[in-house]
């Protein structure tokens, strides 16, 4: 336990913003190039799982990471309170249908881990069922990886003090009013309980490893996640496929168009 205490939400003190932002620009270019190859190859996929407390900046992170990537290559899904239809199935039913097809990057803005977090904190599912979910999630993630989906799990590490500042900005800044929810303050009041559950998740669901990234400052957040994504895409090493023809020779003269 106490895994989070080992990670500074401000990031390393040696990091300097101008240098990190230059490096981030290069990483975003590389994400574009690898995403193009991934889509062209259509043999592998990426599932980026984002978890974090309210105001940790999940939406903004997605916007920054994929600003240079074609929208045709990326899907984003947000998982909120389950509907009646979703509750009538196993808890992974609504998640599995949103996993990426080959060639795609899919982002889960919150994920199947909410089905451990929320019921654990609020106590409306019994402990045995929760315990079973840890194993079921491990099996689910292993199955996805064995079938060509690389899972990248990110915990967005935001401090309690910075969260308060960001939540207050949603009240004090008119253009951010749409982000405000009274429920975020209720969740904040149970911060310690949520952190305890996250610690258990990091320990029990780490067969696909978690990456804990500093999110008190936007530039450290974007750089950290972009670096992780690029490292994984390099390992996957997708390649453009060859021309899908063995014998076809175009008749360029015939294909000329007269105006």
Strand and helix layout:
Elements: H1 17-41, E1 45-52, H2 58-65, E2 74-78, H3 84-87, H4 93-96, E3 105-109, H5 114-122, H6 127-146, E4 149-157, H7 160-172, H8 182-188, H9 191-204, E5 210-214, H10 218-236, H11 252-255
Parallel strand pairs: 1-3, 1-4, 2-3, 4-5
Strand count, sense and barrel status of the largest sheet are: 5 strands, parallel
According to DSSP, the number of beta strands is 5
Percent in strands: 5-15%
Mean pLDDT: 94
Query: Would you identify the regions where 5 or more consecutive residues have pLDDT less than 50?
Result: none
Name the CATH superfamily classification: P-loop containing nucleotide triphosphate hydrolases
Distance between the termini: 73 Å
Strand order of the largest sheet: 2-3-1-4-5
Give the SSE string.
HEHEHHEHHEHHHEHH
Query: How many distinct folded domains?
Result: 1
Structural category is alpha/beta
- The amount of helix comes to 40-55%
Counted by DSSP, the helix tally is 11
